[in-house]
């Protein structure tokens, strides 16, 4: 989707190194999310943000941290990458239901494929 | 947010209607039902959503039972390009709506 971009698209990193994934939106949406998806499974919420500097944990937050210093950017950091964090990471944005812009609920990015070796 | 239950997989013949069920028996009065689909490794894409009434758009129809405990997504004339994983989620209005995505239903449309 043109309103949300993730970078990098692919990354290979070594165990124990820090990694930061970036999500950038041009929609001025309030809420931003990071999900991970493992082969054959659905999406699991890592962290989400409900405004600048306001973040909270999702269901699989251990080993991850996030920051949101601007409305448009939401960063996901793996402090010390492990092989179990090899996954596809999706960023999503949304607004509150009821606003015209929220019709589609979540808009997802194209994903970042991270491999930890 | 309430959780949903979907069958893991379904098949459908090309040109026929695909009916994908979703159970959300613990849904609250202020939770909407949303459907998304994910093709290959792309990000999920919105299909349709509803609160109480049945809804229809250019892609699909959504039938929600009167007690709102289940719903059915209908693709009226399935094509091979509709082969995908379909996710049903419920989401509360007016907040972050940090919904749980289950494993979804893998729909395979066969020629």
Characterize the structure shown:
The complex is a heterodimer of chains A (117) and B (111). In chain A, 0% of the residues lie in helices and 54% in strands. The mean pLDDT of chain A is 91. Chain A contains no helices and eleven strands. Chain A is an all-beta fold and 117 residues long. Chain B has strands at 9-13, 18-23, 31-38, 45-50, 55-56, 61-64, 70-75, 84-92, 105-110. The relative contact order of chain B is 0.35. At the A-B interface, strand 4, strand 5, strand 9 and strand 10 of A face strand 3, strand 4 and strand 8 of B.
SSE string of chain B, helices as H and strands as E? EEEEEEEEE
Q: From the alpha-carbon coordinates, what is the Rg of chain A to the nearest angstrom?
A: 14 Å
Q: Can you tell me the overall shape of chain A? A: globular
Q: What spatial order of strands do you see in the largest sheet of chain B?
A: 1-9-8-3-4
User: Please, what is the average pLDDT of chain A?
Assistant: 91
- The backbone outline of chain B, from C-alpha atoms, is globular
Q: Main β-sheet of chain A: number of strands, strand sense, barrel status?
A: 7 strands, mixed
The N- and C-terminal alpha carbons of chain A lie at a distance of 30 Å
Helix content of chain B: under 10%
Based on CA atoms alone, the radius of gyration of chain B comes out at: 13 Å
